[in-house]
Specification:
Layout: H1 14-26, H2 34-47, E1 51-55, H3 58-69, E2 76-80, H4 86-93, E3 97-101, H5 112-117, E4 123-129, H6 138-148, E5 151-155, E6 163-164, E7 167-168, E8 175-179, E9 192-196, H7 199-208, H8 216-220, H9 241-272, E10 278-279, E11 287-288, E12 294-298, H10 304-313, H11 338-346, E13 347-350, H12 358-373
Parallel strand pairs: 2-3, 2-4, 4-5, 5-8
Antiparallel strand pairs: 1-9, 6-7, 6-11, 8-9, 10-12, 12-13
The protein binds pyridoxal-5'-phosphate (PLP).
The site of pyridoxal-5'-phosphate (PLP) has 14 residues, from helix 3 and helix 4.
């Protein structure tokens, strides 16, 4: 029985357990408390923004971001097509319409020319996605946004630790959102964050994330008895203080986790670089990829289903990449975005996480080489 090489794996242990125990002693387990506040300060410092708001997940952070930027019924938001559909869904939650833009064939983020071509009089903003964490073309997207009077948002769900021209992911747009789901680079099981430099947006998002009133922690400081009144139907999008304690530890681990993923990515490149039947993922010279996933593109002559089944039979977990949003029936679209559709059909994610050993990388690389060169893997 061979050991299975998992596709992803969180790095959590004694330090996280100790942090949880410490929160238990404070008695503040619900959200928006002292542990969340400490995490938010540390996260804003890491990302280089003035504000960070801890949220229940990235979807809720996306929803808050779009809402405070003013997206609503009748509006169109241009979205990078190749993404987990939380991005498109969050636009729908505001009543606005997602309009998907095709992506670059090399790094899979929104092609700035496609974004500009998708602008109509109803367009209010651009929601760019950093696929598997590598940042999109923010200089070009910012220029387009400014030229047309649009706002710019970054779905940085997978981007913790990434950089673009030396600037951290999360600081590249008006608002950015992160995910701390178990499959992301740093995790509390579930969780997310909204970051921004704009105090007005941060304050509004904070209010909306706790049903539309000031968080209890803010009111606690008051000397009299402030009774809040509700003038907006907000949500409960809080991260619990227990999860925030885990996130404080994860944030301290981030440099080590990134270094381990980088090492594994370099080893894959070394071991598979000559294999003609697969195209390896690229990291552009002006950005740092956090390698949330390692996704290879199979040659069109290969049958991805057979390749995946054979890899799994050898104990190597794998999966498709992410989704071509415009092909999802929920959006009811007749758009044709050939680059994204092609990636959706040919991508294969192979094991990538911070616990991956060099030996496991070799096991995966050998299996990939054997399987894709086998005649039975041809269509
Ligand atoms: C994972 C992911 C999300 C959703 O994150 P949740 O925290 O599960 O809501 C959104 N966008 C992208 C690009 C993702 O990869």
């Amino acid at each position: 029985m061979t050991d299975v090489v998992p596709l992803g794996q969180p790095t959590v242990g004694e330090e996280e357990l100790a942090a949880i125990a410490e929160v238990f002693t404070t008695g503040w387990l619900s959200g928006a408390g002292p542990s969340c506040r400490a995490f938010e300060q540390a996260f804003a410092a890491t990302v280089g923004t003035a504000h960070a708001l801890a949220t229940s997940n990235c979807g809720s952070a996306l929803h808050l971001g779009l809402e405070v930027l003013g997206a609503g019924p009748g509006d169109e938001v241009i979205v990078g097509d190749y993404t987990f559909p939380a991005t498109g869904h969050s636009v729908m939650w505001t009543g606005a319409t997602p309009v998907f833009a095709d992506v670059r064939p090399d790094i899979w983020s929104a092609d700035p020319a496609a974004v500009e071509a998708a602008i109509t009089p109803r367009t209010v903003g651009i929601l760019a996605v950093d696929p598997f964490g590598q940042p999109a073309d923010y200089d070009e997207l910012r220029a387009i946004a400014d030229k047309h009077g649009l706002w710019l948002m970054e779905d940085a769900a997978c981007s913790a630790g990434a950089t673009y021209k030396g600037r951290p992911a999360g600081s590249l747009a008006d608002v950015a959102t992160f995910s701390f789901h178990g499959r992301k680079g740093i995790t509390a099981g579930e969780g997310g964050a909204l970051v921004t430099d704009r105090t007005d947006l941060a304050d509004h998002a904070r209010k909306l994330h706790t049903y539309g009133i000031e968080p209890a922690l803010t009111r606690e400081a008051s000397t009299d008895l402030p009774v809040p009144s509700f003038d907006e139907a907000g949500y409960n999008y809080r991260l619990s203080d227990v999860a925030a304690a885990i996130m404080q530890v994860q944030l301290r681990r981030l440099p080590t986790l990134l270094a381990n993923r980088r090492r594994a990515a370099a080893e894959y490149a070394e071991l598979l670089g000559d294999l003609e039947l697969v195209t390896l993922p690229v990291e552009l010279a002006d950005r740092e990829h956090p390698w949330q996933s390692y996704v290879i593109t199979l040659d069109p002559s290969l049958d991805r289903g057979v390749v995946a089944t054979e890899l799994r039979a050898r104990g190597v977990q794998c999966n498709f990449g992410t989704y071509a949003s415009h092909l999802q029936p929920v959006y009811g679209l007749k758009q044709q975005l050939p680059v994204s559709a092609d990636l959706f059909a040919r991508h294969l994610a192979v094991p990538m996480h911070a616990n991956l050993t060099s030996e496991q990388v070799r096991t995966v690389a050998t299996a990939v080489r054997d399987v894709v060169t086998a005649p039975t893997s041809r269509r």
